[in-house]
């Protein structure tokens, strides 16, 4: 993905980002499993969830990934539209292979383009049970909600009530 420079509007620059991730798989079996997942993911198609471009190479048991950096917000789970896309595309999909880590920071949103990317490749796994996926979704949703509550607790738009039994505030 290419971005335009915002530093100097008179410069016509195309800028792209990537990051490099090194994973020590420890054993040849783990390495093979990781390579198999990445090969499967390269050919995977979801309805709305996108996968950043990536390449990888293997050096012994070291897996080196070069992944397109998506410059967006880590808030896919906070916007109902995107949360619904994640649920439909990943939890309710008919394919036995899916992403199974639904924490908010595993999804990057590009609002202006109405796109969402899954970025945690290690959470792409064989998980045929939709019931198991729903349980994981519920658990992660509870954790995400608790985290969002904590993060926004002190924001000025929140109504605060003084708890007479402690020095803390309740929302």
Structural class: alpha+beta
Trace the largest sheet across and list its strands: 3-6-5
Shape: globular
- Tally of DSSP helical segments: 3
Percent range for β-strand residues: 25-35%
What share of residues is helical? 25-40%
The N- to C-terminal Cα distance equals: 41 Å
Would you kindly provide a written description of the structure presented here, covering whatever features stand out?
The protein is α+β, with helices and mostly antiparallel strands and 171 residues long. 29% of the residues lie in helices and 26% in strands. The protein has a three-stranded antiparallel sheet, covered by helices on one side. A three-stranded mixed sheet has the order 4-9-8. A two-stranded antiparallel sheet has the order 1-2. A hairpin with a 4-residue loop joins strand 8 (107-110) and strand 9 (115-118). The termini are far apart. The model is unreliable at 164-169 (pLDDT under 50).
Provide keyphrases for this structure.
single chain, 171 residues, alpha+beta, 3-stranded antiparallel β-sheet, disordered C terminus
List the helices and strands and how they pair.
Blueprint lengths: L2 E2 L9 E2 L2 E7 L3 H15 L6 E2 L3 E6 L2 E7 L11 H12 L5 E3 L7 E4 L4 E4 L5 E3 L3 H23 L8 E2 L6 E2 L1
Parallel strand pairs: 4-9
Antiparallel strand pairs: 1-2, 3-6, 5-6, 7-10, 8-9, 11-12
């Amino acid at each position: 993905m290419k971005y335009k420079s915002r530093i100097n509007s008179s410069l016509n620059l195309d800028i792209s980002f990537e990051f490099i991730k090194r994973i020590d798989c420890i054993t040849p079996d783990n390495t093979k499993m990781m390579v198999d997942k990445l090969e499967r993911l390269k050919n995977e198609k979801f309805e709305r969830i996108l996968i950043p471009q990536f390449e990888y190479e293997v050096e012994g048991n070291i897996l080196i990934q070069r992944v397109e950096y998506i410059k967006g917000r880590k808030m896919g789970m906070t916007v109902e539209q995107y949360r619904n896309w994640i649920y439909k595309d990943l939890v309710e999909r008919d394919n036995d292979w899916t992403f199974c880590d639904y924490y908010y920071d595993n999804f990057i949103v590009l609002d202006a383009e109405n796109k969402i990317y899954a970025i945690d490749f290690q959470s792409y796994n064989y998980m045929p049970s939709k019931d198991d996926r729903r349980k994981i979704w519920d658990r992660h949703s509870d954790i995400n909600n608790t985290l969002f509550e904590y993060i926004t607790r002190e924001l000025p738009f929140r109504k605060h009530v003084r708890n007479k039994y402690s020095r803390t505030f309740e929302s």
